[in-house]
Amino acid sequence: MNRLVKQSEAKTFQPQTKIFNQLFQPAGAWISILAFCLLTVLMIALGGFGSRILNFLFPLGALIVGWLLYFRYPILYNGFVWWLFFITPFIRRISDWRIGAFTDPKSSYIMLAPFIACIICAHTIHLKLFKTRDKYSSIFILAISAVLYSYFIGMVYRGFLPSTISLLEWIAPLLFGYHLAINWQRYPMYAENIKRVFLWGGLVMGVYGVYQFMIAPEWDRLWMIGSGMTSSGGSPVPFGMRIWSTMNSQGPFADYIVTCLLILLSSRGALVIPAAGFTAFSLLLTLVRVAWIGWILAMLSLLTSLTPKQKFRLLAAVVIMAIILIPLINMEPFSTVIFSRLETLTNLQNDGSGQARQGTYAAILENITTNFLGDGLGALEGDSALIVIVNLGWIGGIPYVGSLIFGTLLVLMEPNKNDDLMIPVIRGILIKSFIFLLSSITIKGAHGMLMWGFLGLGLAGIHYYRDYHLHQFLMLKSRDKLPIS
Question: What is the DSSP string of 313-360?
Answer without folding.
Answer: HHHHHHHHHHHHHHHHHTSTTHHHHHHHHHHGGG-GGG-HHHHHHHHH
